[in-house]
Design a protein that fits this description.
With about 140 residues, this protein is α+β, with helices and mostly antiparallel strands. It has two domains: about 1-55, no CATH class; about 55-135, no CATH class. About 25% of the residues lie in helices and about 15% in strands. It has helices spanning about 5-15, 60-75, 115-120; strands at about 20-30, 30-40, 95, 105-110. It starts with a helix and ends in a 23-residue tail after the last helix.
């Protein structure tokens, strides 16, 4: 992925209102690409910089995601792999019928939970995907 492609990807999400700004880093072997785009806050005053500081909650999520993607990159696991192989308690998941349903209105999931589901934080619904359910095709290797 080039810095131009990465910048375009960030700009697309910023223009859609998904976020005011972002800093992204992609590393492969010895090559590291870092770009910043947008603004550092919702007010849109200061531009986002490579060295901008962030308040981050749930920091384990990006660390686990990076570790999982390293295993994917090494060919040891795949994004489509069901996670029940490692977490047997997730072999027969129940999901809420709709996003508006009460938490006790559940049905059996129509398919297994995959690594990709966990990495994309896909909501546990029975049917409807969200706009963030799939990674951008521009994130794939070229």
């Amino acid at each position: 992925m080039t810095t131009t492609t990465l910048h375009e990807l960030l700009d697309t999400h910023i223009a859609a209102g998904s976020m005011p700004g972002a800093v992204a880093l992609v590393a492969r072997d010895e090559r590291v690409e870092v770009v910043s785009a947008g603004t550092a806050g919702l007010a849109g005053s200061a531009p986002m910089r490579r060295d901008s500081l962030f308040r981050i909650a749930s920091i384990t999520k990006p660390i686990v995601a990076a570790a999982a993607m390293t295993l994917v990159d090494d060919g040891l696991i795949a994004p489509a792999d069901p996670v029940a192989a490692w977490l047997p308690e997730l072999a027969s998941p129940l999901v809420v019928r709709t996003p508006e349903s009460p938490v006790d209105d559940v049905v059996s999931a129509v398919r297994p939970i995959t690594l990709l589901d966990l990495l994309t934080f896909r909501p546990a619904t029975a049917s409807r995907p969200t706009s963030h359910s799939r990674p951008s095709p521009r994130c794939s290797r070229s």
